[in-house]
Q: What sequence folds into this?
């Protein structure tokens, strides 16, 4: 298989600066809703996003996480272990980038900004809404840390099931939410002949400046 020969053309409508919404959070919500409403929306996992973090000396790391909320402040919220690799990165360097790709529309959205932990109350509310099996998994797993075997992980899960049998599973101390406050959005629409549309929003005080980028 020659990877260089693999390519797709894009037959989608373009983006015009004058037709973009004034607030990029509203524009993002519109695109996200269209992805959710797509007949294959569930299969494509429209809330899946690449989260990129970096160590203080610049070593990057990226992984897929799920967007769980866009709060009243327009912050992008997700949940994870605070003691994971991404948690370690964000504790030392609280800046990150998100990337959504919706191939069914030939669209990508990139978001950059600063990150902070959500309140404990928000973390507890979300944790309590999770399936019990997911709650137990969060308790049992020492995320991103080396473990000796799969058997030990399964034993840790069995121990958690026994410990909390018949009762609520408490929120682990090292587990909770993060909220990214956007400073930049880029909306990308695939076009024919690789002349893609790229519209970028940059925060300017309380407003947003909108510009077009070369593809």
A:
């Amino acid at each position: 298989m020659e990877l260089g020969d693999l390519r797709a053309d894009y037959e989608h409508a373009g983006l015009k600066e004058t037709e973009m919404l004034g607030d990029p959070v509203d524009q993002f919500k519109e695109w996200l809703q269209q992805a959710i409403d797509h007949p294959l929306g569930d299969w494509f996992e429209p809330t899946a996003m690449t989260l990129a973090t970096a160590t203080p000396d610049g070593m990057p790391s990226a992984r897929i996480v799920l967007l769980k909320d866009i709060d009243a402040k327009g912050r992008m919220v997700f949940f994870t272990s605070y003691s994971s690799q991404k948690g370690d990165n964000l504790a030392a360097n609280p800046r990150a980038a998100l990337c959504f790709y919706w191939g069914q529309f030939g669209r990508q959205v990139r978001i950059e900004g600063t990150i902070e932990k959500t309140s404990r109350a928000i973390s507890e509310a979300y944790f309590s809404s999770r399936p019990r099996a997911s709650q137990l998994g969060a308790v049992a797993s020492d995320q991103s840390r080396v473990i000796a075997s799969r058997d030990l992980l399964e034993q840790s899960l069995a121990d958690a099931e026994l410990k909390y049998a018949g009762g609520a599973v408490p929120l682990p101390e090292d587990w909770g939410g993060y909220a990214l406050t956007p400073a930049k959005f880029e909306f990308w629409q695939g076009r024919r002949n690789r002349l893609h549309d790229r519209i970028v929003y940059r925060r300017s005080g309380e407003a947003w400046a909108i510009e077009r980028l070369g593809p």
Q: What stands out?
A: Helices lie at 24-37, 41-44, 85-92, 120-129, 132-140, 150-163. The radius of gyration is 20 Å.
